[in-house]
Design brief:
- With 213 residues, the chain is an alpha/beta fold.
- The protein has a single domain, classed as Rossmann fold, CATH 3.40.50.
- Helix content is 33%, strand content 23%.
- An eight-stranded mixed sheet has the order 1-4-3-2-5-6-8-7, with helices on both faces.
- Strand 5, helix 5 and strand 6 form a beta-alpha-beta unit.
- Helix 1 packs across helix 4.
- The radius of gyration is 16 Å and the shape is globular.
């Protein structure tokens, strides 16, 4: 379970130069934020930021935006960024339901979803980040060649996600139920903190890549 109450975390977010706590109104301005025209990749539900910070370190010509709802979780990534000061990495503290208020049409090149909350009750299905409702949101901000990459160890959530990709009218470009034993798809794979934990427990990691129709 994620830690959600670290004293002072919210205040740190407000004052930190790498974090946007009130991002509404930034729609269409991200090239100005980064001061370049490089591609923009985002991770929704970034947790402690190991995945996106690693990518930003490896790919200086790509801009990264990590999105996390909880200040106490985001704090870990912010502390690391204060050390690294990567110019191509920013964070947003927000609920993903409002994502279209923050990114405009054709503004994003890629979306990463890693070990997202499964929202197991059927009545909460539309809250899942791989629901058709969220794919409709992604469709509004991704470029024509944009894609969504999703990893999880939750097979039920993965089965649901595969079907939602199709129902949303997207193209299921890649799909595996055992990423770490798929030499082609696992090449260059950057592991998240949850991925490392669950794979060490023996849980197969599932991955899909969905392209816009």
């Amino acid at each position: 379970m994620r830690l959600r109450n670290v004293p002072g975390a919210r205040e740190v977010m407000v004052e930190n130069e790498y974090v946007f706590t009130e991002p509404e109104g930034m729609k269409g301005t991200w090239k100005d934020v980064f001061k370049n025209d490089n591609p923009i990749h985002i991770e929704i539900g970034m947790g402690k930021g190991v995945f996106i910070t690693t990518l930003a370190s490896m790919n200086p010509d790509i801009n990264y935006v990590g999105i996390e709802k909880y200040s106490s979780v985001l704090l870990r990534a912010v502390e690391k960024q204060d050390e690294l000061q990567l110019p191509n990495l920013r964070f947003i503290r927000m609920d993903a339901e409002n994502i279209n208020e923050v990114f405009g049409k054709d503004e994003v090149d890629r979306i990463y979803l890693n070990f997202s909350d499964p929202w197991p009750k059927d009545r909460h299905a539309k809250r899942r980040l791989t629901s058709r409702q969220f794919f409709a949101r992604y469709d509004q901000m991704l470029k024509k060649t944009g894609r969504v990459e999703f990893k999880t160890d939750n097979k039920d959530l993965f089965d649901f996600s595969v079907e939602e990709v199709k129902e949303a009218g997207w193209i299921l470009e890649e799909c595996t139920y055992d990423l770490h034993n798929d030499a082609r798809l696992n090449e260059g794979n950057v592991m998240t903190e949850y991925e490392k934990k669950f794979s060490e427990m023996g849980n197969p990691i599932c991955k899909l890549i969905a392209d816009r129709k």
